């Protein structure tokens, strides 16, 4: 298995299937497709039907290649099927001039302004950012237990710290909040994660270290070298795989799959990995 920029070059196969029932007119927004970035080579197919009839989608391309697919539905059963084969990883995303400002600010689920005093007392702020990154990741891994259902969708990083448990988004939010409180810009990335168990949409953190975006995953559930970027944002409010505006929906079912050809990479957790 070979690597480019820390990422495996082995083909990765990803898919998502969702069934959503709309009982009152709504505007659906989906973020399930692989982010389109320079250097990426892939084939993909996205099919959406409403009551078995093909639906017309509006594609909105955001920052860092994130793609929102928007659909207005009066009522009925919406079925979403997406699959892609990534044959070449995207180039690492460069640090922009606005990133430091954007990703040091408190956000909905990563309320770093609540952590300034705590972080200063918990971590050695004299250390270089790369070592602080490892300290924060280790701390969150040790402090939290991965328990599906232990958190609510509205829980932020402070709630997660107090609860001591959560799922991948909760781990990522706490990592992001602590890093921002230590003056290290950080953000959340939604990914497909070959090797993740339990298999699901996955979330990891990214931090600026030595002028590059470095991925960290305090859950240790999947090797970072095989991750596939879906969307990027301040926190989960920006990266949700399904959202709706007005109306009423019910997510009846969803299934996510992600595999890599050959053996999974070995992730020591200390190598600097930049997701394309």
From TrEMBL:
Source organism, top-level taxon: Bacteria
**This protein is called what?**
Transglutaminase-like domain-containing protein
Which InterPro entries does this one have? Answer: Papain-like_cys_pep_sf, Transglutaminase-like
Q: In this protein, which residues make up the domain named Transglutaminase-like? A: 160-220
Q: Which organism is it from?
A: Gordonia insulae
């Amino acid at each position: 298995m070979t690597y480019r920029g820390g990422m495996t070059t082995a083909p990765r196969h990803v898919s998502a299937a969702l069934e959503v029932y709309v009982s009152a007119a709504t505007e659906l927004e989906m973020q399930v497709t692989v982010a389109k970035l320079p250097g990426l080579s892939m084939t993909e197919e996205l099919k959406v039907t409403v009551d078995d009839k093909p639906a017309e989608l509006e594609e909105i391309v955001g920052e860092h290649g994130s793609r929102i697919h928007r659909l207005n539905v009066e009522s009925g059963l919406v079925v979403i099927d997406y699959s892609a084969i990534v044959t070449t990883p995207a180039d690492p995303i460069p640090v922009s001039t606005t990133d430091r400002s954007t990703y040091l600010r408190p956000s909905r689920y990563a309320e770093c302004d609540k952590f300034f005093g705590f972080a200063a007392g918990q971590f050695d702020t004299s250390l270089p950012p790369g070592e602080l990154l490892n300290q924060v990741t280790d701390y969150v891994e040790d402090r939290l237990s991965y328990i599906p259902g232990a958190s609510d969708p509205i829980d932020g990083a402070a709630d997660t710290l107090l609860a001591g448990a959560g799922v991948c988004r909760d781990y990522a939010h706490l990592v992001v909040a602590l890093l921002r409180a230590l003056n290290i810009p950080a953000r959340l990335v939604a990914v497909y994660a070959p090797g993740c168990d339990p298999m699901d949409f996955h979330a990891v953190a990214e931090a600026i270290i030595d002028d590059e975006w470095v991925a960290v995953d305090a859950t240790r559930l999947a090797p970072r070298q095989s991750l596939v970027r879906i969307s990027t944002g301040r926190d989960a409010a920006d990266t949700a795989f399904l959202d709706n505006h007005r109306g009423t929906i019910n997510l009846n079912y969803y299934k996510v799959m992600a595999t890599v050809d050959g053996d999974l990479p070995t992730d020591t957790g200390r190598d600097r990995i930049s997701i394309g």
